[in-house]
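Exercise 7b. Backbone tokens:
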């Protein structure tokens, strides 16, 4: 069930109405039923994967918690037994993820080796990737690690824990929630005040903004991006550069749009999800970009991979090794393709370069008396960061490394400056009107992001402090734009959210 579907527009009000009228002690059980139904709308059989992951990590959490509190054992014995339980939890969840997501990738890699040896190749398996498997397995694994570290207590109520793993607003594309946040709210849910006008209205506003990002910008941008990347050999520099820039807009509005709708949906229900995006393309460095982009995944890898490897507490070269491992695994998490690994490693190398060049740039700025707080300097840093990220996005979007390299070569060798003035950019899948709608929508997006960057206020918080007439004009305007200019309806193939495939 997609957020941008008629089914969800019927599903959510029903869930909300029943949730508000049920007794507080069983409301979480209703949300669990709704969450399982939400996921089963894609493929009912794959609900078994969530159940398996939930039961295994729940039992592992309980066992680890029992070992921690058990008397008569030394600390060394406790740790050894807890590590064995953690290993079992990791093997089951990682095994599910590897089988469904990476089996054919490994077969393909093996076939390349067999091909060079002139040996018979293996047949790939017919495996359908379950929606959101990378998200709910990481969320469940994070819980068991938190219990092992003693950061949270093991949840005794199986159904409350099951709701934590499968909470429908963020189930299939994040944010990847932490047990300290979401599970803590589920535990406190019966004692929390249910109806709060300000909370519900702000949640609905956040949802509306997410729909604007998805329906008006992302799905419209997808048409141009697909046109350029699918036929990149037919285009030259201008079209190829525009394709990458618009892909940046597409993936941001698509993924951040999902996270925004998820955050708003959860808030209406009385839950606060963690922030997943914070104006990433206004970042002044690649390291700053990753503090703002897919925050839940970045902090997950930081806490559960980078820091356990040694983080920044070791020597320079080991620190760089940790960065490359973390970003390489992050790239592989996004997809079973070497293009994603290269994308991740590029961001790792960017951060290594920033750390090496940082002291040199600082000395140059001191000698030249550069005004580092000036608008011009900060704009230059944002621009450089944006260009570096744009280059990496080519590998993320390309279907193969060969396509990415060929795309980049054509971008630098096939110059066609005149295309900026002969209206040929209106032949990239979008006509003049559609391009103008995309342009205006992107400008509105930039203004909202700039407001958040400068004032620290999201759209809902900003409008809450405005004159009621102005507030309603903005909200009705957004609703009108979504209804009139949103990409949906007869003949439109509703594009599912990009990160569903991860």
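Sequence design result:
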């Amino acid at each position: 069930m997609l957020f941008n579907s008629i089914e969800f527009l019927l599903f959510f009000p029903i869930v909300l109405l029943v949730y508000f009228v049920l007794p507080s002690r069983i409301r979480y059980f209703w949300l669990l039923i709704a969450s399982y139904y939400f996921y089963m709308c894609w493929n009912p059989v794959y609900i078994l994967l969530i159940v398996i992951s939930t039961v295994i990590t729940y039992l592992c959490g309980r066992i680890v918690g029992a070992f921690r509190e058990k008397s008569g054992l030394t600390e060394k014995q406790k740790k050894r037994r807890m590590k064995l339980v953690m290993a079992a939890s990791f093997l089951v969840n990682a095994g599910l993820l590897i089988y469904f997501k990476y089996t054919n990738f490994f077969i393909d890699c093996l076939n390349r080796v067999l091909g060079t040896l002139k040996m018979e190749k293996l047949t790939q398996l017919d495996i359908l990737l379950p929606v959101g498997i990378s998200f709910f397995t990481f969320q469940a694994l994070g819980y068991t690690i938190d219990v092992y570290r003693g950061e949270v207590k093991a949840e005794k109520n199986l159904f409350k824990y099951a709701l934590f793993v499968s909470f429908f607003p963020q189930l299939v594309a994040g944010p990847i929630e932490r047990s300290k946040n979401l599970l803590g709210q589920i535990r406190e849910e019966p004692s929390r005040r249910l109806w709060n006008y300000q909370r519900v209205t702000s949640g609905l506003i956040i949802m509306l903004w997410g729909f604007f990002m998805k329906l008006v910008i992302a799905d419209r941008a997808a048409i141009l991006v697909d046109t350029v990347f699918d036929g990149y050999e037919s285009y030259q520099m201008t079209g190829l550069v525009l394709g990458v820039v618009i892909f940046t807009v597409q993936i941001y509005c698509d993924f951040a749009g999902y996270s925004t709708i998820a955050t708003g949906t959860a808030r209406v229900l009385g839950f606060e999800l963690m922030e997943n995006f914070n104006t990433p393309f206004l970042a002044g460095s690649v390291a700053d970009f990753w503090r703002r982009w897919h925050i839940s995944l970045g902090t997950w890898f930081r806490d559960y991979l980078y820091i356990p490897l040694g983080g920044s507490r070791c020597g320079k070269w080991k620190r760089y090794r940790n960065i490359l491992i973390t970003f390489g695994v992050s790239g592989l998490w996004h997809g079973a393709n070497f293009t994603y690994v290269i994308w991740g490693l590029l961001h790792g190398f960017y951060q290594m370069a920033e750390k090496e060049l940082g002291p040199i740039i600082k000395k140059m700025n001191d000698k030249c008396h550069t005004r580092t707080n000036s608008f011009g300097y900060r704009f230059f840093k944002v621009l450089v960061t944006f260009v570096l990220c744009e280059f990496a996005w080519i590998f993320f979007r390309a279907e193969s490394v060969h396509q990415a390299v060929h795309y980049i070569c054509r971008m630098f060798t096939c110059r066609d400056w005149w295309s900026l003035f002969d209206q040929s950019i209106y032949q990239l899948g979008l006509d003049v009107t559609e391009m103008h709608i995309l342009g205006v929508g992107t400008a509105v997006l930039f203004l909202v992001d700039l407001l958040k960057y400068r004032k620290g206020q999201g759209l809902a918080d900003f409008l809450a402090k405005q004159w009621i007439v102005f507030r309603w004009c903005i909200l009705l305007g957004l609703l009108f734009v979504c209804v009139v200019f949103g990409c949906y309806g007869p003949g439109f193939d509703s594009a599912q959210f990009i990160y569903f495939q991860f």
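Instructor comment: The longest helix spans residues 75-116. The mean pLDDT is 88.
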